[in-house]
Amino acid sequence: MDTMRDRFAPVVSRLLDEDPRVAVVLAAIGTDGFAGAARRHPRRVVDVGIREQLLVGAAAGLALTGLRPVVHTFASFLVERPFEQVKLDLGHQDAGAVLVSAAASFDWPAGGYTHMAPGDVALLDTLDDWTVHVPGHPDEAETLLRHAVAAGDDKVYVRLSVQSNGRALPVDGERFRTVREGRSGVVVAVGPMLDAVLAATEGLDVTVLYATTVRPFDGAALRWATETAGTDVVLVEPYLAGTSTAAANDALADVPHRVLGLGVGRRELRRYGQLEEHVAAHGLDARSLRERIGGFFGAAVRP
């Protein structure tokens, strides 16, 4: 199966052909995938070189001229390194763009900590009016990319990962999807965490919600699920643990509830290893999730 990033250049190249507003801004990363598009649309495919602050600044400038820029590099170079430009050039100037990242939290362990960005969504949470898509399958990534580009002049972040669920589900760029219904708790699985969550909760009497658009946070879906499953909630996110706990708490502010946020830990893992080893070290494999989810809900989750 191809990866989400494999889909990125072909999908956006087609969008360049279809929509004269679409432009692509790159910083040396991913340029090969746009070689054909650059020949067809030389004024709308821009490579600024290894200059990530300029990457975002140039995108903002294109947006202010009426174009819809799609901006791509590794998450650590797209959100963290040029954060001031994301805050000011896009946010302060109210300029819309589609930021599309690769490498996620630790997709390329051999790249070391400079190429890891578990805090990217939490960092964007300090800014206003961002939509954040976290697809869990290449087919979902294609759908959400098209949603993002078509979203007027909004500010959108699409977080691509080599981690993927085994099959795609229908996604609409807005709502959480109910995958399993239970009576003793709610587990929200974000993007590529769904397969591990489903394996971890097999045989447990819990509702599983699937989230591929996490900002805005679908508080209505969470509230609806808690009406029958109770107000104990576990969030399983492929980035910094606890990133969405405040959003879940806000959604349930008027009812007694408990929320547990699972995700990537704050401790830096200083060995390269393999992706699967990082998943296990952060307790995001199915076995670890079952222990942590079961321990939080207690005996009530047994059918």
TrEMBL record:
Transmembrane segments: none annotated. The keyword Methyltransferase does not apply. Belongs to the transketolase family. DXPS subfamily. This is 1-deoxy-D-xylulose-5-phosphate synthase. GO terms for cellular component: cytosol. Keywords: Isoprene biosynthesis, Magnesium, Metal-binding, Thiamine biosynthesis, Thiamine pyrophosphate, Transferase. Its cofactor is Mg(2+). InterPro entries: Dxylulose-5-P_synthase, THDP-binding, Transketo_C/PFOR_II, Transketolase-like_Pyr-bd. It comes from the Bacteria. It is an enzyme of class 2 (transferase).
